[in-house]
Design brief:
- By secondary structure, the chain is α+β, with helices and mostly antiparallel strands.
- The chain contains 30 helices and 13 strands.
- Strands 3, 4, 5, 6, 7, 8, 9, 10 and 11 form a nine-stranded mixed beta sheet that branches. It has a two-stranded antiparallel ribbon with strand order 1-2. It has a two-stranded parallel ribbon with strand order 12-13.
- Strand 1 and strand 2 form a beta hairpin.
- Helix 27 packs across helix 28.
- The longest helix has 47 residues.
- The relative contact order is 0.08.
Length: 776
């Protein structure tokens, strides 16, 4: 189901719903990690013997006056578990629904679970014809969750290709009298209904001619039928928390008759041993494989090894943090905290920020930390009781955090980001010492960014943004506004022309280029995190299943082809922003400001080159080599170096274009535009190299002539030989180094003694140090 699409069960057949409904895929801790079609999640086959774990709900409606429970008999036309008696209603919350049906960990923690309640209201109306106004969401009582699985072997036979594997949310609802409830069962969903007492249900369970759903049997026997269980204690169940257990996910294997199936599934759990739900790490960072090149591959590139050595030990980025102007303006201890926390939350930005001129450095440092604090509030999916509370904090941030010197926030974020919010008064101390103009810029951008974040809070982004317009809008809020804020700070500092503050379009485009690159690279990480941004209007052209997760199935040749076409269209879209990025850089006059802006840009074009036509994007996170990042940092000092990088990677992308790709012409056009813009600087650089070569040749000739004038003719040949040897020596070193790497690999010894120092150096690069983290 596409986000924003109206769901109409009456307009769909059972087969339609199996294909079009998009269930919420989970890990064992009930964290949302993706989505799948209803069909795909319920298939019990060899490659997934228990299907795909997804979220479900089970509703139990009781008549308060009689204590009776409403049961339904699932229709014979149902694909899974037909002809079985079960609880009032059991189905799935879906991605992309309005109102939203995707619950967060915090919703479970506080018991609100509005997502599954919204889904319950929708399905009660669809299956049983109960009007929404007769079952308001406020009347549902969430009790607990159970993780169970069951093959549908009773109705489909021992080789059944169908089954259920769910984390099921149990919901109770009561009406004063069954007469108050309108029931008009849908014939494709329900064959029969009946109200039963506890004793009647026990008798039905004893009737061997009747079939029951395995999940209903588990819930009934575990919690409902025992003395003083949920049914006997119905009033307390509905009005107190006596029977609520939100922390535990109870695990159950099915009765033996529901084991097996086409995937030959056997027991998964020990009998009735509940496991506590572990606290989920915020976001999917670290859960996804990172594709990196081997150390051998990195060592074989001698030029990159030399660049790493130069950046680490010989020519590191200069830090201006200890300049006299900074020491005399800001509180020493508070500034030290800000610098330290910046290094912890982002080494890459720490390196390029520190090299900025003293009159701008701290302004940008605090701007980054303020936005990082704001982003931490927006990203935390568990700290706030509801979306409204989070939105209130976001919208008031520019007044609370930036106007109250004592403001702080505890219990939000993780690790260093959490510490940043806890110790925010130290950031405020430094912020308050900035010029009024800088503070005005930071407060304005913070307010506008928070407003944009609030717009996207609560949106179901499990299947990405709706279209290019929403995709661009999101990127504008989280990155384009950053570009605008930086341009205004550059102008305020006096290091750049006042006109830079008015370059809103170019500033925005530069931010979008960086953000879109990150979104393209982080496809799988964002998808697993349940907050994806690839626009549906793009990926739906290529996904045959109608699901964003389709592309992750790289074992399917068709899916791999389609995924690359989709990827390349998004890369092409990002490349269209390059002319504006280069136009922005051309307007900068301060070398340090130029480098600060240009380094992320060249890293982005290198990352796009790495991602283009690369299936690894769909199985993990791809990153450029650390040695390459060092090389780019060293060469990003002026327009010539930047244009050379963009030209190199545009040529590389163009060389990988598949003529069968539907985006081939558009991609080639985008690359040609970059090559055209960089042609002048390329021509200039080529002339400079020729001039340098001629000068070097002339110098060598002069040296030889001088030698010959002082030497006899018999010494001339050795002198020439010595010059030639020096001239080709560097080429021999490079090729010998590469042969040593290959030889070491083939002989089983990873590194010869000669290579170990270089290997140590690349290990330091691999672990990350200072500016090397730019490659992130």
């Amino acid at each position: 189901i596409m986000a924003g699409t109206t769901w109409d069960g009456n307009a769909m057949s059972q087969s339609d719903m199996m294909e079009k409904d998009t269930v919420i895929v989970l890990d064992d801790a009930d964290n949302v990690i993706g989505s799948e079609s209803k069909r795909g999640s319920h298939e019990f086959i060899a490659k997934q013997p228990r299907g795909v774990l997804h979220r479900a709900f089970s509703v139990f409606i009781f008549d308060q006056s009689t204590g009776e429970l409403l049961l339904q008999k699932r229709a014979s036309t149902k694909i899974t578990f037909p002809n079985v008696w079960t609880n009032t209603c059991c189905s799935h919350p879906l991605h992309g629904m309005s109102p939203n049906e995707v619950d967060r960990p915090q919703d479970v923690k506080d018991g609100s679970v509005m997502g599954v309640k919204n889904a319950a209201v929708r399905k009660l109306e669809h299956e049983l014809g109960i009007p929404k106004e007769e079952v308001p969401v406020e009347g549902f009582k969430f009790l607990t969750r159970l993780h169970y699985w069951a093959a549908d072997t009773v109705t489909h036979g021992p080789e059944s290709p169908w089954g259920e594997h769910e984390i099921d949310y149990v919901l109770f609802f009561t009406v004063e009298s069954k007469d108050q409830l309108t029931i008009k069962p849908h014939p494709d969903e329900v064959d029969d209904v009946c109200w039963v007492t506890k004793q009647k249900l026990l008798a039905m369970f004893d009737d061997k001619s009747l079939l029951f759903s395995p999940w209903f049997r588990i819930i009934a026997h575990r919690w409902m039928l025992s003395k003083d269980g949920w049914w006997d204690d119905l009033a307390a169940t509905m009005t107190t928390h006596r029977h609520c257990d939100y922390a535990t996910i109870h695990e159950f294997d099915p009765p033996t008759e529901h084991m097996g199936g086409q995937g030959a599934a056997t027991a998964l759990f020990s009998p009735i041993i509940p496991t506590q739900n572990a606290v989920a790490k915020q976001g999917a960072y670290g859960k996804i494989k990172t594709h990196t090149e081997s150390k051998l591959s990195q060592l074989a590139r001698l030029d990159e090894v030399c660049s790493a050595a130069t950046l680490l030990y010989i020519k590191p980025l200069k830090s201006n943090l200890h300049h006299a102007h900074i020491k005399s303006t800001f509180n020493k201890d508070d500034l030290a905290f800000c610098d330290e926390i910046l290094c912890k939350v982002s080494r890459s930005f720490a390196a390029v920020i520190r090299q900025l001129p003293p009159t701008l450095l701290v302004d940008v440092l605090i701007f980054y930390l303020v936005l990082r604090a704001l982003d931490t509030i927006e990203d935390d999916m568990t700290a706030f009781p509801d979306n409204k509370t989070k939105i209130d904090h976001l919208l008031s941030f520019h007044k609370t955090a930036l106007m109250d010197p004592t403001w702080s926030m505890d219990g939000v974020g993780e690790g260093h980001e959490k510490l940043l919010l806890q110790q925010f008064p130290k950031c405020h101390s430094v912020y308050a010492a900035l010029s009024q103009q800088s503070r005005r810029v930071i407060a304005d951008i913070s307010h506008r960014m928070a407003t944009g974040m609030a717009e996207f809070v609560g949106k179901d982004l499990g299947q990405g943004t709706l279209d290019i317009t929403q995709y661009n809008r999101y990127c504008h809020f989280v990155a384009g506004l950053v570009g605008e804020g930086l341009s205004r700070l550059f102008a305020v500092s006096g290091l750049e022309s006042p006109s830079m503050a008015k370059e809103l379009h170019l500033s925005d485009q530069m931010g979008l280029f960086l953000q879109k690159t990150n979104i393209i690279r982080d496809y799988l990480e964002d998808y697993v995190d349940g907050r994806a941004f690839w626009p549906q209007s793009v990926w739906n052209k290529y996904s045959t299943s109608g699901d964003l997760g389709y592309f992750a199935n790289q074992s399917d040749p068709l899916a791999q082809t389609k995924s690359l076409h989709c990827l390349n269209e998004l890369v092409t879209d990002a490349l269209s922003l390059v002319p504006d990025c280069l136009a922005y850089l051309a307007k900068l006059r301060c070398t340090e400001v130029f480098r600060f802006c240009a380094i992320p840009q060249v890293m982005a074009i290198a990352t796009l080159d790495k991602c283009f036509n690369n299936p690894n994007v769909f199985t993990g996170v791809v990153k450029i080599r650390k040695g390459l990042s060092c090389q780019l940092i060293l060469h990003t000092n002026d327009a010539q170096g930047v244009h050379a990088a963009f030209r190199h990677f545009a040529n590389s992308i163009a060389s990988k274009i598949n003529p069968n790709d539907p985006n081939a012409d558009a991609t080639l056009k985008a690359c040609d535009a970059i090559l055209e813009i960089t042609a002048e600087q390329h021509s200039r650089a080529t002339k400079q190299k020729r001039t340098g070569l001629l000068m070097g040749t002339a110098a060598a000739a002069a040296a030889v002539a001088a030698t010959s004038s002082r030497s006899s003719s018999k010494n001339l040949i050795p002198s020439l030989a010595l010059s030639a040897t020096a001239f080709i020596g560097s080429f021999w070193v490079t090729h010998t180094f590469q042969r040593l790497v290959v030889k070491g690999s083939s002989s089983g010894s990873l590194y010869s003694p000669v290579l170990r120092p270089a290997a140590k150096l690349m290990t330091e690069c691999q672990n990350g140090d200072g500016a090397l983290e730019q490659a992130q």
